[in-house]
């Protein structure tokens, strides 16, 4: 009994130490956001010698004459449209694969699964050429419009697994009463799939908010920059870098992700585990 308690105590100590180790970069960044630039890379102390909030004031003023609040709104706009697009398109595709019968259904589902193994960089150049020819470069259209066509195979697969857990007998009753395919989708599939849909929304927001590469490829106007692109502007390889402002705005950029995880973690866990266990 005593050995078991000792092993349990050691296990928790190791977990806590690993947690602190993973939190160290975040704590260092938070501490550095209240330091002056000359102090940030001097020593390893978390406590600033001279506490200042000027980094937040200067960082919020933004760069190139654009307030950082504008960058937040740009990121929020792209994330909101992406969430709506993914929920609508991916849920429709998943409903078709999970509950409808049509010709070549298994073939199309296999092709969809193959797209999960296709790296983004393989299709980057062809996509850029197409979007450039139709005049979409330096707009938000390449980042939002494709999502209305169910291009996220991971979300489709996750929703399919979840929708397969919905009893077919439950859907037969409204069908007998004259409810059509689309009516069943709106009135039954969508409400019953709410945990999985919330999970899709959370992942879409996180991935879109943190996205840097695709936004860097398609957006060049500083007024249209997102948070990820704006943070890069605080670091100048040929001139002066505002490290304090960079860390301050980085801390603020993490707040939406932290709040979403805190308030929606129950749906996130339920949406993932229900589909994986019962699917």
Give a verbal description of the structure:
By secondary structure, the chain is an all-alpha fold. It has a single domain (67-242, 254-278), classed as Orthogonal Bundle (MetI-like fold), CATH 1.10.3720.10. Helix content is 70%, strand content 0%. It is built from 14 helices and no strands. Helix 1 (2-32) packs across helix 14 and helix 11 (194-210) runs antiparallel to helix 14 (243-278). The mean pLDDT is 87.
Characteristic key phrases:
279 residues; mainly alpha; MetI-like fold; 14 helices
Short précis:
With 279 residues, this protein is an all-alpha fold.
Give the termini separation. Answer: 39 Å
> What is the total tally of β strands?
0
Number of helices: 14
Number of domains: 1
* Percent of residues in beta strands: under 5%
Question: Which SSEs are present, and which pair or pack?
Answer:
Elements: H1 2-32, H2 37-40, H3 54-61, H4 68-99, H5 105-114, H6 124-133, H7 141-144, H8 153-163, H9 168-176, H10 181-192, H11 194-210, H12 213-218, H13 227-232, H14 243-278
């Amino acid at each position: 009994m005593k050995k078991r308690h000792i092993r349990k105590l050691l296990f928790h100590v190791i977990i806590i130490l690993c947690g602190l180790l993973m939190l160290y970069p975040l704590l260092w960044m938070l501490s550095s956001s209240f330091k002056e630039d000359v102090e940030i890379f001097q020593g390893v102390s978390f406590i600033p010698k001279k506490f200042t909030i000027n980094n937040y004031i200067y960082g919020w003023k933004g760069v190139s004459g654009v307030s950082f609040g504008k960058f937040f709104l740009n990121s929020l706009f792209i994330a909101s449209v992406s969430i709506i697009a993914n929920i609508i398109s991916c849920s429709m595709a998943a409903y078709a694969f999970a509950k409808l019968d049509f010709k070549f259904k298994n073939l199309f589902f296999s092709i969809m699964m193959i797209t999960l193994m296709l790296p983004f960089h393989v299709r980057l150049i062809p996509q850029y050429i197409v979007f450039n020819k139709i005049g979409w470069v330096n707009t938000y259209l390449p980042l939002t419009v494709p999502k209305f066509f169910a291009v996220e195979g991971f979300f489709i697969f996750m929703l399919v697994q979840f929708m397969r857990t919905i009893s077919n007998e439950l859907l037969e009753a409204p069908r007998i009463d004259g409810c059509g395919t689309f009516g069943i989708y709106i009135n039954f599939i969508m409400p019953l799939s709410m945990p999985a849909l919330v999970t899709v929304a959370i992942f879409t927001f996180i991935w879109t908010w943190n996205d840097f590469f695709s936004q860097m490829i398609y957006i060049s106007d500083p007024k249209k920059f997102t948070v990820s692109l704006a943070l890069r502007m605080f670091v100048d390889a040929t001139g002066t870098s505002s490290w304090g402002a960079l860390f301050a705005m980085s801390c603020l950029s993490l707040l939406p992700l932290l709040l979403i995880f805190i308030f929606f973690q129950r749906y996130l866990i339920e949406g993932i585990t229900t589909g994986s266990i019962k699917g």
